[in-house]
Amino acid sequence: MAPGPFRVDVVQRDHFRFDVLFDDETWAPVVVDEPEPLGEGAGPNAARLLAAAVGNCLAASLLLCLDKSRIEVRDLRATVEGTMERNEKGRFRVAHLDVTLRPFVEGHESSPRFARCLDIFEDFCIVTQSVREGIDVQVTVDPEFVADSESESREMVGAAG
Hints:
The chain is an alpha+beta fold. The protein has helices at about 45-70, 110-120, 125-135, 150-160, and strands at about 10-15, 15-20, 30, 75-85, 90-105.
């Protein structure tokens, strides 16, 4: 990933179901949705996408280190288990993520190259380290107001009478 800006658009499809569109048109949109009763569970929600991003980033960082160390990886799986808790205001937050990486590698576990990767790979995971350190998030709400067709019709009838 090159340094600099990137863009993701989140477009409402239906109620709590959204399409996530990326800044590369060759990538398919991702459908996200809240679980019932808010949504219909038609896709992962934001907390699960966060867990997926952390798991993917850690797996990719470990894989990169193992590849550079010439350690053959036959398969690599990541499992992320999240915990939701209420904060002091009673709002749900992702409180904890437990990540388990399972690389299927050739060689011996006491390899100094393997041990070195275990020591350093987390530091190269952009997402995990950003989450750990906190991310500055600025929020702007830029509404576009549209006229309610019923009230607009009532106003026109009242004005005509």
